[in-house]
Design goal:
This protein is α+β, with helices and mostly antiparallel strands. The chain is built from nine helices and 16 strands. The strands form four sheets. Strands 8, 9, 10, 11, 12, 13, 14, 15 and 16 form a nine-stranded antiparallel β-sheet that branches. Strands 2-1-3 form a three-stranded antiparallel β-sheet. It has a two-stranded antiparallel ribbon with strand order 4-5. It is flat and about 70 Å long. The relative contact order is 0.09.
């Protein structure tokens, strides 16, 4: 067989044989290599990560902040604060549910790597069941999803239609409300104005109180104490503070002094303003509890009032938390910080 010159092309059959020999030397194609996860398609990376990164308490993926004990066991922020609050109510040390090592706000730490990993895991939209990364899901459900529940454009003039966003245009095209007379839509507008007035009434009341002559404010700390009863109940109390020439304290209770607040998931903080000195005359006082410089929870605006005569104190009232879920967050701290504004309304 004659030699083929180096610069001359190989015959077609020779090319094919040459390429086949090369493939045998290289081994199987990477695309055709199978793994154990290919044989079992139900075992996906996100499913395995979901089982690894879930909270040790609620066994769900953390929605936001993730804390870990000194041994690395993970807890979502709500469960972490709930554990600390339970320990405060029982007068015990909080422990990790997995390894029982002691946990606190100083010993536990945030796990930012887990938080970022969880935010990238896929999750289904509750309306259209499409899958999105967790960090983008909220924006999709609130503003983008065509199946999200929405109202009619003419809701403010009395239309009560509710339905998927993709059906809103078709409904608005045939909605009867735009064709109603002014007299027909007046009741809906009056109801809307009444709700707006209720919402702004408390702010108007506070601005009116700020024009009074005698106003004081104090930044207070509610510190935990326990009763000396058979079942030790947790309560909070501030140090005495002066206002309008008298001495006052604020006391707070959990679930209005319920014997076993750890037996219920619903928790509420009630507080009471108490006059400690003997007044020479009646004191008509109004007050507002606000978030202080070191406070950790937002408080809703609410004005309280009472006439102090020296022999009666106002009944405990709920601490007006803007978010009731912040109750455990406050109970997990060593003290509750807030600001008390007091207005003397005596004529």
């Amino acid at each position: 067989m004659s030699d083929v010159p180096e610069n001359s092309p190989l015959p077609t059959c020779s090319k094919i044989s040459f390429l086949l020999e090369l493939k045998k030397d290289e081994g199987p194609s990477p695309k055709k290599r199978k793994t154990a996860f290919d044989e079992d398609p139900s075992v996906k990376l996100e499913h395995r990560l979901g089982g690894i990164l879930c909270c040790a308490v609620c066994l769900d993926l953390p929605p936001a902040a993730v804390y870990q004990c000194s041994n690395g066991h993970l807890m979502c922020a709500p469960c972490f604060t709930h554990l600390l609050a339970d320990a405060q109510l029982r007068d015990e040390s909080a422990t990790c549910p997995n390894c029982r090592v002691e946990i606190s706000k100083t010993s536990a730490s945030r796990n930012l790597a887990v938080e970022k990993t969880v935010s990238e895991l896929p999750s289904e939209c509750k309306f259209c069941t499409r899958v999105f990364p967790r960090h983008a899901l909220q924006n999709h459900e609130d503003k983008i999803c065509e199946d999200r529940l929405t109202g009619c454009l003419y809701e403010r003039i009395g239309c009560g239609w509710r339905g998927p966003a993709h059906e809103a245009s078709a409904h608005e095209a045939v909605c009867e409300r735009p064709h109603k007379s002014a007299g027909d839509v007046l009741p809906a507008l009056a109801e809307r104005e009444a709700r707006a007035a209720d919402h702004t009434r408390v702010y108007t009341q506070i601005f009116s109180l700020l024009s009074l002559e005698k106003i004081t404010f104090n930044d207070l700390q509610l510190k935990p104490y326990r009763t000396e009863e058979f079942i030790h109940k947790l309560y909070y109390e501030t140090l005495r503070f002066p206002s309008f020439g008298h001495q006052w304290v604020v006391k707070a209770f959990i679930n209005n002094n319920q014997p076993h607040p750890t037996h219920t998931a619903h928790r509420e903080i009630t507080y009471q303003l108490i006059l400690k000195s003997k007044p020479q005359c009646e004191l008509s006082v109004q007050w507002v509890v606000a978030r202080g410089p070191f406070g950790e929870a937002r408080l809703a605006p609410r004005v309280s009032s009472h006439t102090f005569r020296g022999d009666d104190d106002p009944a405990p009232a709920p601490l007006p938390l803007a978010d009731p879920e912040d109750t455990n967050r406050l109970l997990s701290n060593k003290a509750i910080h807030f600001r008390l504004l007091m207005f003397l309304t005596n004529k």
